[in-house]
Amino acid sequence: MLPLIQNETLKIIRRRRFAVVIGILFAILAVVTYSQYRQLRDRANRNWRADIQQRIAGYQNTVRRGRINETWSRSLRAEINRLQFYLDHDIEPDRPTAPLFVRNFANVAGFLLLPLLIAILGSDIVSAENAEGTDKLLLTRPVRRWKILTSKLATLWIFATLTLLCGALLSYSVSAPVLPRAGWTAPTFTGFQVTRGAFSFDAVRQLPLWKDTLIAYGLEWFALLCVASISLMLSVLFKSSAASIGTMLASLIGGTILLASLIGGTILTRMSPDWTAGKYLFVSALPLADYYTGVPPPYEAMSMWFCIGLLGAWAAGAMIVSYVIFTRRDVFG
Questions:
Q1: pLDDT 10s digit of each residue in the chain, 333 long?
Q2: DSSP labels for 271-327?
Q3: For site-directed labelling of 257, which of 204, 211, 224, 246 has its Cα 20 to 30 A away?
Q4: Cβ atoms 193, 297 nearer than 8 A
Q5: 194 forms bridges with which residues in the sheet?
Q6: Could you tell me the CA-to-CA distances from 283 to 115, 116, 247, 248, 286 in Å, in that order?
Q7: Which of 81, 330, 129 lies closest to 232 in space, CA to CA?
Q8: Residue 56's closest CA among 73, 79, 86?
Q9: From CA 69, how far away is CA 53, in angstroms rounded?
Q10: CA 64 to CA 113: how far, in whole Å?
Q11: Alpha-carbon distance 280 to 288, whole Å?
């Protein structure tokens, strides 16, 4: 098994996909870091309490006007109470620091950026063999097919882990020279919830930033492993690399699901909360770090544990389909 994994690893490195992924991460993080630096500089002479009060007033006016859907209204009410919590406890939230930048990377990038990068890495790991003409040689080797597919899945999981780890290291390396480096032990508050229309403090918990960061990255790591498993399934289903990559990217950004004027994929959960079946799409469950923090899910019946179970079910189903099709595939089909 180890030689097979080494072989798959060399294939990904040879295609330079991982180098492209790291380059994309570096470029995006550099731009966002510059924005955070300017924000920190502008906040130097500003009253953060007045800014928070102004944000709360703006959100309250938006909710009172009643021109937004229930999901968005619920999110704004949760944000209002979160900000009020910080205001009441005299804690300045979201002050740009390098540790906080690393923590927020798990939330922001875990929603779409990291899954897209994993899709780029994994959606053609099997279909590329057909494009390169090596599929028949691969399937006629004296190695059990399930071992071949397992090596590809393990390789994808390894690179998903490396992508997340590199994102964390890059986010700190890029931001530390221009943002304050202290703050790993600063208190963080997560678990803000809206229960039956009312804000609940029962689930609010205080953790040092480093521990909160580890939990958030652990959740996103699980989500990326599930995305990698789904990418593998699409690569098995499609013999064309373009088709497998395109389908995965489209499912993530909502480009291919269009039903009776509803926008599908990730955008569906924001645009059409009345379509309750959308909560069973794997893209609805991807931002686990957000749900852990206390951001209300797009559907009220969802919870973080529901999302973890949903992603696990999608990943398990994808692996079952992948193994059944790959082990039974006609070599000359």
A1: 788 888 778 888 887 888 888 999 999 999 989 888 887 777 767 777 788 888 888 888 887 776 666 656 766 777 777 777 777 777 677 777 889 899 989 888 887 888 888 888 887 777 766 666 565 566 666 678 788 888 889 999 999 999 999 999 999 999 999 888 887 887 777 766 655 555 555 666 777 889 989 999 999 999 999 999 998 888 888 777 677 777 777 777 763 343 333 333 344 444 444 556 667 888 878 888 877 877 767 666 677 888 899 999 999 999 999 899 888 766 545
A2: H-TT-GGGGGSGGGG--HHHHHHTPPPSSTT--HHHHHHHHHHHHHHHHHHHHHHHH
A3: 224
A4: no
A5: 199
A6: 9, 11, 13, 11, 5
A7: 129
A8: 79
A9: 24
A10: 33
A11: 14
> How much is the pTM?
0.78
- Residue identified by tokens 């993080």 is 29
Q: With contact defined as beta carbons under 8 Å apart, do 96 and 37 qualify?
A: yes
Cβ-proximal residues to 169 (8 Å cutoff; 6+ apart), any chain: none
- Within 10 angstroms of residue 174's Cβ, the number of other Cβ atoms is 21
Tokens matching residue 175: 């931001």
Q: SS3 of 41, please?
A: helix
SS3 sequence of 87-129: HHCCCCCCCCCHHHHHHHHHHHHHHCHHHHHHHHHHCCCCHHH
Q: Which two tokens stand for residue 219?
A: 């959740």
